[in-house]
Write a structure and sequence with these properties.
Elements (H helix, E strand, L loop, with lengths): L1 H33 L6 H24 L1 H15 L2 H17 L2 H13 L6 H25 L3 H18 L2 H12 L6 H15 L5 H5 L2 H20 L24 H29 L7 H37 L6 H16 L2 H14 L5 H25 L3 H18 L2 H12 L6 H15 L5 H4 L3 H30 L1
Helix pairs in contact: 1-2, 1-14, 2-13, 3-4, 3-9, 3-12, 4-6, 4-12, 5-6, 6-9, 6-11, 7-11, 7-17, 8-11, 8-21, 11-18, 12-13, 13-19, 14-16, 15-16, 16-19, 16-21, 17-21, 18-21
């Protein structure tokens, strides 16, 4: 028991450390530029603390239950060497991990609220989760057969661009954001470990070239499926394009009353139930083996559910209001410079502290055997996120169509994919998917919604979403450009010696 409390303490410190960059940036702008305490500041501070506690409980629960059981299942299926079984397990893990993703839950609820129910939150989550499940099965298939990832990515993003051209503008930003929120501190290590472990266990496969890429596919495919969903949802021309905004503040109070608490906890149980059922099914029915520590695993599942509940309450009290409050305050200045600067600082600071990025950077450094430095990767990705969010904010301010930005961004990515050295392609795409965590996604989403609601002539549904998409595109660009330049420098150095 003492060890569990110690682990929870470390998880809490870890969560508070992830929130620290946001607190520093917001405090600096409040103290040096705005020079006023934000309205509801104490409620926001309490919300941030609840977010930290919720994330710590959630992660502690994962470490006690889902992670150890899931890893044992993956190892046992890999030893069996059955492709259909591995693909089925990949689909089940991908679906169940994403359908309970806190950031996806938050974005889906915001989309349903802003679209006045036109977009159904549960349907959106099921579409994204199914897409990721299919991606995991496809990724397992690719690794086993040794297919080059860049062909999958080029064909996939050509499809993304084509679908974007036909998709209604109300769904484009949301679709790209939905792809970006599928990967975080929970899903990234699990997906990356499955890919790298599978590549390492197959003769002739390179963990760096073949093992990475599952995260990239998990980001790409939901962009296509959600846009197709949007084409169906918005096929009726009689419905107004721009939905009225129901401000988050209307629903931003902590639940009150024992009945509401119980109902919300049952809602969280519904969210986590798929991954629990998947793990128990494969463990007890497919492998026919009992759980190693059923009491410990059960306690872990309880912590996951309660942690998710605390996280969502903290979002409504803390991160959502902070993003909207900063947007409302910064747009009152005569110059847009401060909005751009805030977006850049938030993007860079939060990404440098992103735990999933640190984990992937370390795995890449080990797999690359000296070709890649983890710290350099972190700086490049943070710079890409900062640039991406700044460009996304610029799009909201100018009111430009997101179609041109997204299509242009991915055309650039496709060209760089053809030019970049093969060893960096899979890693670069994966790095584009690890920049959006359960902390940064709600804040960035609230910033976009806040700006769109404050600028005259902007639609919250059309213009408010999309910042997460830009945060996912530009890290791919910065990492690939760096790899191309370093390869050219190495080639010139070789010629001169």
């Amino acid at each position: 028991m003492a060890q569990q409390f110690k682990d929870f303490y470390h998880a809490l410190i870890h969560a508070l450390r992830n929130l620290l960059p946001i607190i520093v940036v917001v405090a600096a702008f409040q103290a040096l530029l705005l020079r006023e305490w934000p309205e509801g500041g104490l409620s926001m501070a309490a919300g941030l603390l609840i977010v930290a506690v919720g994330v710590a409980m959630f992660l502690q629960g994962l470490e006690l239950s889902i992670f150890p059981v899931g890893k044992r299942l993956a190892n046992q299926f890999a030893r069996r060497g059955s492709m259909p079984l591995l693909m089925l397990f990949g689909f089940a893990i991908g679906f169940s991990a994403v359908v309970a993703e806190p950031a996806l839950i938050a974005v889906a609820e915001q989309a349903a609220l802003i679209s006045e129910g036109r977009i159904d939150a549960l349907t959106l989550r099921l579409i994204v989760a199914t897409s990721v499940g299919l991606v995991m099965a496809l990724g397992v298939f690719r690794i086993i057969l040794g297919h080059p990832l860049h062909w999958y990515m080029i064909v996939g993003y050509v499809l993304v661009v084509v679908v974007t051209f036909f998709a209604p503008e109300e769904i484009v930003g949301l679709a790209y954001d939905s792809g970006g929120v599928t990967t975080n501190i929970v899903t990234v290590p699990l997906i990356a470990a499955l890919g790298i472990g599978l590549a390492a266990s197959i003769r002739g496969r390179n963990p760096l070239i073949d093992g990475f890429g599952l995260v990239a596919l998990a980001v790409m495919v939901p962009m296509i499926s959600v846009q197709l969903y949007g084409i169906l949802v918005y096929a009726d021309p009689d419905v107004a394009n721009a939905a009225a905004l129901a401000l988050v503040e209307d629903d931003a109070q902590a639940p009150s009353g024992l009945l509401v608490l119980i109902l919300d906890l049952f809602g969280m149980l519904r969210d986590v139930l798929p991954i629990i059922l998947v793990i128990l099914f494969f463990q007890l029915v497919v492998l026919r083996r009992p759980l190693a520590s059923p009491v410990k695993v059960g306690a872990g599942f309880v912590l996951v559910i309660v942690g998710l509940y605390a996280f969502v309450v903290g979002l409504k009290l803390g991160l959502f209001p902070i993003g909207q409050s900063m947007a409302e305050q910064l747009v009152t200045f005569d110059s847009w410079l401060w909005v751009y600067l805030f977006a850049f600082c938030i993007g860079f600071a939060t990404t440098m502290a992103e735990p999933a990025l640190i984990a992937v950077g370390q795995q890449a450094e080990e797999a690359a055997a000296g070709k890649i430095q983890g710290n350099v990767i972190r700086i490049l990705v943070a710079l890409g996120v900062a640039i991406g969010i700044t460009i996304g904010v610029h799009r909201i301010i100018t009111g430009d169509s997101i179609h041109y930005y997204i299509i242009g961004g991915y055309v650039l990515v496709i060209l760089l994919t053809a030019l970049a050295p093969r060893y960096i392609v899979a890693l670069a795409f994966d790095l584009g998917g690890v920049t959006t965590s359960e902390v940064t996604v709600p804040l960035v989403t609230a910033l976009g919604i806040g700006l769109a609601s404050q600028i005259e002539g902007r639609s919250v549904l059309i213009d408010g979403f999309g910042l997460i998409a830009f945060a996912s595109i530009f890290p791919i660009v910065t990492v690939m450009v760096y790899a191309i330049l370093m390869e050219r420098v190495a080639q010139r150095g070789g010629k001169t010696t």
